[in-house]
Design goal:
alpha/beta, 8-stranded mixed β-sheet, 4 helices
Length: 177
């Protein structure tokens, strides 16, 4: 079965965007393990707001971004580019179906609301976070409204000379009551 991997940059104080939606604080001076990560995936799950940010910056799209099958989660978006599938309504069944398809792992690219929804129904398998050595003080927090504790198992950590720390965790299944 394919894994859903949340892969994001996060500030040391837990924000994925600055107070004005900016992400100019993210390091782009080296690979930081992205090439290895991109070999593992062929699909991306993207929330509506993150998709809109990508569209607004399409001309500035980084050349390191892989071409993958995209699923946009929204109950309002219509008329997307060819090759992009919209998932609305029963997202849980849709994600379970996609996870059971043949293919590589799935990149949960963003955003915070989609992450919360998938985390709360147990559909995220791993976290791959690039923790940047910056305190933003405000912005959009990565984790909001998570239902209960989520136990993690450290799979790997790596420190870079820039101060960025890459951590990879597996989510432990919740104990049955």
């Amino acid at each position: 079965m394919r894994k859903v991997i949340l892969g994001l940059a996060v500030s040391l104080d837990g924000f994925i965007e600055g107070p004005n939606g900016e992400y100019d604080w993210c390091f782009t001076d080296q690979d930081y393990g992205l090439s290895e990560f991109f070999k593992r995936i062929d699909t991306a799950f993207i929330g509506r707001k993150s998709h809109e940010v990508l569209l607004a910056n399409k001309d500035a799209e980084p050349d390191w971004m892989p071409k993958v099958k995209e699923y946009v989660f929204s109950n309002t978006v219509v008329g997307l580019d060819e090759g992009i599938t919209v998932i609305s309504g029963d997202f849980e069944s849709a994600v379970k179906g996609i996870k059971n398809q043949e293919g590589k792992d799935i990149w949960l690219f963003g955003g915070a609301a989609l992450t919360t929804s998938l985390m709360n129904v147990g559909l995220v398998d791993e976290l791959w976070l690039s923790i940047h050595p910056i305190l933003l003080g405000a912005g959009k927090p990565l984790f909001q409204n998570i239902n209960g504790r989520v136990q993690l198992e450290l799979l790997e950590s790596k420190t870079y000379d820039t101060g960025l720390v890459s951590v990879k965790y597996a989510l432990k299944p919740k104990a049955e009551k």
